Amino acid sequence: MSRTAGAVAVLSSCLGTCLVVATLGAQTPARATSATWDAKAAAAYLDGRQTWWQSWPNAARDHDTFCVSCHTAAPYAIARPSLRSALSESGPSDAERKLVENVTKRVRMWREVEPFYPDQLRGLPKTSESRGTEAILNALILASRDAHAGALSDDGRKAFENLWALQFKTGEQTGAWAWLNFHYEPWESGDAPYFGASLAAVAIGMAPGGYASSPDLQDRLKGQREYLHRGAETPHLFNRAMILWASSKLPGVLSASERQTAIDALVAKQQADGGWSTASLAAYKRIDGSALDTASDGYATGLIAFVLQEAGVSRSQAAVARGLAWLGQHQDRADGRWSASSLNKQRDPASDAGKFMSDAATAFAVLALTERQESHESR
């Protein structure tokens, strides 16, 4: 990308934020503010679930490592550091440290470790899907860690090298990556490559030291932007939320008007109680034929309230303020979590598998509630 093109991309992002603020400024601010929530309980829930995941036999992989999940491990990695200030913590929790050590080990042994799901055990093309998925999640977790440190580490740079080596260069998925498809919504399905490419954009955008402006990356980023842009008009609102988040980290993914359209579409799905329902974000159907839960839930509300703030919508604006108020009122005081239910089948919410959606819900609720708006207002 030329210096002029880069400036245009950044200007587009800034104009997008201004448009958001100007448009939403006319809305009536919500009267209610977020009720008090328990950061200590949220941290205890997240740490406990991550510790369980790390020792769960089904998560174990070769070389004494464990796989990184889209529901329990990855959201935890980006959300847990935001609780440190509230809890006066001096460094990562034990569960955080072990997760990063696991990711670092697999990044360093990339050519020796087996894929999460090899073709020989799960059928074609699971090796390719596993590698693409893991490369993105590894880069996301290490970029998040390095962003807090202020410098991109050698391991973080190696994770990105692994990532770029797997980017598609031809075909319908040019600019994207292979992504796991077990027909499980919303993270491992036929539509999920947009989710994966969005997470890759978030990782690239948050990597410190101006990584995204590296000259040798611009052709690769061009393909990625074009791929994500193709998803901008999809009726699949979960993917559009993810692409909106990507656009806040990687300028040039969406134009100002496209960002506003995505924001408006998400706000339109807000329910009367101030929350959002994950079931309303796409044409989901459970494989067991049971009815989807359509009430507001912690995952959709946390994700959308967080993404809207990332896109430049102020916490004081009606949609975000009402979403944050819903989160403040719906934390489970007994164990610290925010609840959400499976899109794929009816699960026992007390079971470990039944908590997967709540793991992600709690992480994004924390991100939404701890998001600091100063960085967006300074744009």
* SSE pattern: HHEEHHHHHHHHHHHHHH
Describe the largest sheet.
Answer: 2 strands, antiparallel
CATH-level-2 architecture: Alpha/alpha barrel
How many distinct beta strands?
Answer: 2
Question: What's the gist of this structure?
Answer:
The protein has 379 residues and is mostly helical. The chain has helices at residues 3-24, 39-55, 73-79, 84-87, 94-108, 119-122, 126-149, 154-165, 193-206, 218-230, 237-249, 256-268, 298-310, 318-329, 356-370, 374-377, and strands at 60-61, 65-66. The protein is globular, with a radius of gyration of 19 Å.
From the structure above, extract its key features:
two-stranded antiparallel sheet, 2 strands, disordered C terminus, 53% helix, mainly alpha, Glycosyltransferase, disordered N terminus, 379 residues, 16 helices
Verbal overview:
- By secondary structure, the protein is mostly helical.
- The chain has one domain: Glycosyltransferase (Alpha/alpha barrel).
- Helix content is 53%, strand content 1%.
- It has 16 helices and 2 strands.
- The chain has helices at 3-24, 39-55, 73-79, 84-87, 94-108, 119-122, 126-149, 154-165, 193-206, 218-230, 237-249, 256-268, 298-310, 318-329, 356-370, 374-377, and strands at residues 60-61, 65-66.
- A two-stranded antiparallel ribbon has the order 1-2.
- A hairpin with a 3-residue loop joins strand 1 (60-61) and strand 2 (65-66).
- Helix 11 (237-249) packs across helix 12 (256-268) and helix 13 (298-310) packs antiparallel against helix 14.
- The chain starts with a helix and ends with a helix.
- Residues 1-34 and 373-379 have low confidence and may be disordered.
